């Protein structure tokens, strides 16, 4: 099965997504709580990394979580037992919901605006959508390193080759307005890590971002986008930004919109 | 007089700094208020763009604002009449203060850590420093444009050629700890502008950032860092990010530290 998911489906990847969600939960989920009884759709739940936080923050909502991958859903089911899981392609979804939640999904889709427009058809009038995406163009660090930057650029390129866009965060405003949503509001949610924030250095710089870059190394080298030496140095330099005098910056974008 | 100040000292530049300060005042100054009677030094006050906000937020503090440029001080005096202004080089300063405030200054200095170490000598034990700087590596936008990026890169290069560092924001943590400050804490303060935030599109994307890039155009072309056509297109593309579907992102860094 080739779903074009650049990060792959192996076990370490599932662990990475779990670590990422725990470290970033407060940053990403703050402000998102759905009323008891409301019908919430998580489109593209993957292994359930965000699903558990949706459940924790909206215990009374009725959550339906959908993903195209049966293997991911099997893991998600173990994580969140009270959720209704369903295997389906985003474009095949039907039903009516009060709220839709989409996190780290649009970045992998060739037609994100079309996906948003379809999700809009699933909302009742007055219903809302919440979208969270990263933007790898927001990644910068100290010490600076052309090798680390080249490795990040490789990840962006691989995601583009797979039909996605690792720089999609900056596009959420035009994507949501273009898909017909009203009252669109986008907020940057920034991760900044230095030695005074050891949890973020470990949880984000090392175990989330650097691990994500490391995860595509074999592919990048196999496709001739990087040399083995250059790649190794890039990853080492990313790790180096987690040392005592290092810093790391990354911006996620959280968008909300309404179906009038 | 060549002080190495890349942005120059002409009138439009003073207006730009004023616009910037007004739009960004809340973002940058939130959390900074000095007790009545405390002795506060603003090192490198320039035309007083930040000075007026320091006065407004700490009306009872005794503020001394210092700059190396007599012309800038003349303008600053008109803006903030209750402040004690003094013309001096940062490294020649003496006296004792409870707090030091430094904003958009270190980015222009060849030895920022040495400057911070000197400022530390001016603090009483237990005194604090607050430092605010930008980082042009945090600038990204939609639509993407290699011409706009090249123009931004020119600005970074010109500032480096003048002995400064337009990418200094990411370095505040190591700079302050290296200069001997304790309890150093750095926060990103992010500007994100899209059509739902027209004040920021005008006040930041257009009148602050794009104006700053435009301001070095003649120099960039004269030094052969850009062609006239390429530069014009880069500036046009930066303006384009302020259109209806455009977005713009920039991160300032605000750091605090203590002299034990």
From TrEMBL, chains A, B:
InterPro entries: Methyltransf_12, SAM-dependent_MTases_sf. Keywords: Methyltransferase, Transferase. It comes from the Bacteria. One of its GO terms (molecular function) is methyltransferase activity. One of its GO terms (biological process) is methylation. Residues 41-129 form the Methyltransferase type domain. This is Methyltransferase domain-containing protein. It comes from Amycolatopsis balhimycina DSM 5908.
